[in-house]
Amino acid sequence: MIVYNKEELENVTLLDQAQSLEKAGFMNKKQYDEISKELIIPKRHNNLLIRGAFFLLGIFLYSSICSFFTLIIVDLIAENFKILIFLYALVGFVAAEFLSKQKFYGYGLDDAFIVGAQLTLALAIGISTDGNGLIISLILMITSLLSYLRYMHLSMALLFFFATTSSLVYTLFELGATGKTILPFVLMLFSAGIYYSSKPILKNLKPTFYHKGVLLANSFSLILFYLSGNYLVVRELSVALLGAEIDPNSDISFAYFFYAFTFIVPAAYLVYSLLKKDRIMLWIGASAMTFSIYSIRFYYAILPIETFLTIAGLLLFACTYFAMKKLKNKATGITFRLDRFTKANAFMNSEALIASQLGLKPETVLESDMEFGGGGFSGGGSSGEF
């Protein structure tokens, strides 16, 4: 199923790990260069700017090929332009297959054709089915999964999760008001199922090139679970989908549950991530907590915005200060010490920037138990007593 050589995909993972070890200082540049020469990998770009430039070039090439075919067959298809859009999708799939056979993997050009083929296919199905969301999402769910299993591109894995979620949502829409009412709870169960099924897979996964896709599923489930019960999301969807009119002195059904959910889930993410040392969950939890505060304040603005931001800044400073004081001397577990796999220059540059903005100057203190002086000769430092 995979178009690439599996050993070369394993080598990509090994080279990425070697690069992280080299940046962390566990090996020198010469050792890393020797490893990179020994490992055979597909053609790819780690630099996002270069990859983005080739992605734009791929879009231009894709559009040029489609324009060429349009000029050739435009007189043959008359007014049936649906065939033309399906042809565009076919061009994308054929070009993606050709570039992958040439060992282009995350190069930029292949990204443009793989993503472009899916988007044009969705457009063609949408035109053919008068915008039937369920059919579009079901077909994209299948094609994106097959594309990920063949080309191993994370963009296809992300599209698969979005298409699967959309298929579930549109299926519930077919049930009418009942399906729309239970939508948040079904999405919670769905995301929880993805999370708890991906955890053992991550532990027992042997082909390393599948690791990022499963990790993406794990992270996607955490975000989906939180958004499924967020008060702002549920309330706005109730108005949009059910046509509910919420009076100033009334609220949505199960309002207290969604109030509690909005704050308990991000707090649980933060606590669990610290206990398990899960950095991705920590980022998601912090972002979710920020959005939770915004969600409540969107409806209940108790304080002026400037007063609220000032109090929030003071609380954040206090929590950060006491956390630093508590963790700065710890060497294991949760610690404030620098992570060797994190670029030290970012911290050093931040420290220098803060010091320059506040007008701080480095303080040099020399402390020693030895007292110097007492000599009468240049550089002697001796008083003549033994």
UniProtKB/TrEMBL annotation:
Keywords: Membrane, Transmembrane, Transmembrane helix
TM helices/strands, residue ranges: 53-77, 83-100, 112-128, 158-176, 182-202, 214-234, 254-275, 282-302, 308-324
UniProt keyword Transmembrane helix, yes or no: yes
Protein name listed in UniProt: DUF2157 domain-containing protein
Organism expressing this protein natively: Flavobacterium frigoris (strain PS1)
